[in-house]
Predict the 3D structure of the following.
Amino acid sequence: MKIAVAGGTGTAGRLVVEVLRSRGHAPVVLSRGQGVDLLSGSGLDAALAGAEAVVDVSNVTTMRRSVAVDFFDRAGRQLLGAAERAGVGHLVTLSIVGIDRVKNPYYAGKLRQEEIVRGGPVPWTVLRATQFHEFAEQMLDTLPGPIATVPMGRVQPVAVREVAEALADLVVAAPQGMAPEIAGPRVESLVDMARRRIAAGGVRRRPVLPLYLPGGMNSGGLLPTGPGPRGTQTFTDWLVEQRAAGTHA
């Protein structure tokens, strides 16, 4: 199958492309480097010509609600419109577990993305995933100062590759609407993850101070609420893998 991957150069997108190619499909990366601009729609029609399905793992790095909502609204509408014109039979979108329970500026954008997909004419599947193992380091990178104040919430982190494999499974199957949520094998404390990530090396060493945040994170809002696929790689396994590879999250 010819399968377009929006955001195919990102953390998850690169692996989705790799998995699809290893399974004999013909992935097409939708990115500015390939002449495609999701926000303006430039290059989308040409890139989607002949595509049977689309996986949307596009992303924007922001903690501003207005920026997140604007990006996912504009990109979502452009992608949906081009997919309809191309006769795409299945749009699979990656989302996040708990975005309807936890108050977060970025999650408002993801909710807008889901709303556009659900209301559109292209048959769809939305897969909500828990946070990736990389989440602890990504969060630490955004926290300035000599002390890292980390939210006290619990998460059930999952390996990016296992999410990519799940997306590759879904995109060749029949559209199913909201798919069962995918999560990792074990519930972790976000504070503990941050401390262990610092101890593993490769990030700035500093004390981690637990921070209570209202809005649902502390009450388990980021955890899956029902049965669904569960990954096998734990956060501990991932840390060992990172050290063995000599790389950082």
